[in-house]
Structure formats: C-alpha cells, structure tokens
Automatic annotation (TrEMBL):
GO molecular function: oxidoreductase activity
Nitroreductase domain boundaries: 11-197
Source species of the chain: Antarcticimicrobium luteum
Name used for this protein in its record: Nitroreductase
InterPro entries: Nitroreductase, Nitroreductase-like, Nitroreductase/BluB
UniProt entry keywords in alphabetical sequence: Flavoprotein, FMN, Oxidoreductase
Name of one Pfam family that matches: Nitroreductase
Domain of life of the organism encoding this protein: Bacteria
Length: 222
C-alpha cells in the first residue's frame, strides 16, 4: 500500500446521502470496525463504543427518530458549534449549496431545504446506523479520539465498497438516543454514521466537496 493508494481511497470516500436498501453482511461490518479500532487514542484509551443497527432494528430506529425530529427539540450531549465565522462559514455555505443544487432545491426555498435536512432523520434510507459514544470523563480528548475512529470507520468502509455518512444531526436528540440504545448517562453521544451501499443515481450523491490547498492549512516553519 503506497501513499498514492491511500490518497486514492480517501479521494473516493464521500458523504453518501442516498443508500440502496441491501444490507451489508455482518462479517463485513465486523471487519470495518476491527480496522477502524486501529486508530490512535490518547493513552490507548480506545474510548469509542458503537451501537449498530441492521434490518428491522434500523427501520424501528428510523421511525422513532423521525417521530422525535417531527416533535422538535435539540438536546445534544456535546454542544453544537456556536458559530462558523469567516472562511468556515463560506465552506459551510458552499457545501450546503452544492447539496441543494444537486437535489434541485433553489436558494430561498425554505420548505425544500427543510425537507432535505429531514432526510438526516430517515438516515438517508441507509440499512445500517452506528451511534458513537465516548465516556464523559474523558472530555474533549475522548471526543477527539472518537473523531479519529469515525474517520477510520469511514475509510475502512470505503475500502470494503461501503458508503458512509457521519451525522451530527442525529446526536441532536441525545436523551432519546440514550433511552433507545441503553447508552449510560456517563457516556456522551457524539454522532451517528449511517452506512450501506450508495445509490449512485440519486442526485444527492451527485456532487463532491472541495478542500482548501495545503498551503492554506499549514504554517511551514523551516
Ligand atoms: C462529525 C461530522 C458530522 C457530520 N454531520 C452531518 C450531518 O448531520 N448531516 C449531513 O448531511 N452531513 C454531515 N456530515 C458530513 C459533512 O457535511 C461532510 O463530511 C463534509 O461536507 C465534507 O464532504 P464529504 O464528506 O463528502 O467529503 C458530518 C461530517 C462529520 C465529520
């Protein structure tokens, strides 16, 4: 495996927002999790834990989550960003517009954008969903370690031909997630990863996000 191979794999991954219904075999999911757990963590604490749904469990969760979302409320365990200033706001807007343009939601179409946002709570029709939690005692560094795990999971899945999307939106309803998945109160729900096989023909999967040039994100010294 060369850096070029890894770069090619990373370039192929994207956040999938339309899945086909066919399930991923349990052995493949196990292999993805086994690979993802190789990521580093501070003191090798490996703070991640996943609740993974398949089959009817995904459908029951999807229905209950949708009900929660329709009822409204926003109570994540981890505070959502308070703002996206400057360049972060620009990047956020750009990727939002890319999505809306792809699915045919015009600027200013609030109902259309709300409908697309609600697709989060249908898990974009994915056949599987993983809920990632971290021990509250490990604080932001536990969350940092789990962020690495999320990336490891997405990359391992990509290598297996499985599409993914990390979803903070799902973590909006943390009290419900604690109840539904029996996640103890001393753990923080961080995000979900919905996964399965991508529907390549769905317009929601028809765009790719950009990245800032290397020189914009590195301060070279020496
Ligand atoms: C922690 C995290 C949370 C995310 N939450 C959501 C989400 O709730 N809904 C969504 O549509 N995309 C979500 N995304 C996907 C990002 O929008 C996406 O990664 C970003 O726009 C870059 O595009 P790419 O993943 O296709 O390369 C999330 C990504 C990460 C890493």
């Amino acid at each position: 495996m060369t850096l070029d191979d890894l770069d090619a794999l990373m370039a192929r991954r994207f956040s999938c927002r339309a899945f086909r219904p066919d399930a991923v075999p349990r052995e493949t999911i196990e292999q993805i999790v086994a690979a993802a757990r190789r990521v580093p963590s501070w003191c090798n604490a490996q703070p991640w834990h996943l609740a993974i749904t398949s089959g009817e469990e995904t459908d029951a969760f999807r229905a209950a989550l949708m009900e929660q979302a329709m009822a409204g409320g926003h109570e994540p365990d981890l505070p959502f960003p308070s703002s996206y200033p400057g360049v972060y706001r620009d990047r956020r807007r750009t990727c939002g517009w890319q999505l809306y343009e792809a699915v045919g939601v015009e600027k200013g179409d609030r109902a259309g954008s709300a409908r697309q946002m609600m697709r989060n709570f249908e898990l974009f029709d994915a056949p599987h969903c993983a809920i990632i939690s971290s021990p509250a005692d490990l604080g932001p560094y536990g969350a940092l370690d789990c962020g690495g795990f999320v990336t490891g999971f997405c990359m391992a899945a990509q290598a297996a031909g499985v599409a993914t999307i990390p979803q903070a939106a799902v973590a909006s309803f943390a009290p419900f997630l604690h109840r539904w998945f029996d996640i103890p109160e001393d753990r923080l729900v961080l995000c979900a990863i919905s996964f399965g096989h991508a529907d390549p023909d769905d317009p929601a999967n028809g765009f790719r996000t950009g990245r800032a040039p290397v020189d914009d994100i590195v301060t070279w010294r020496g």
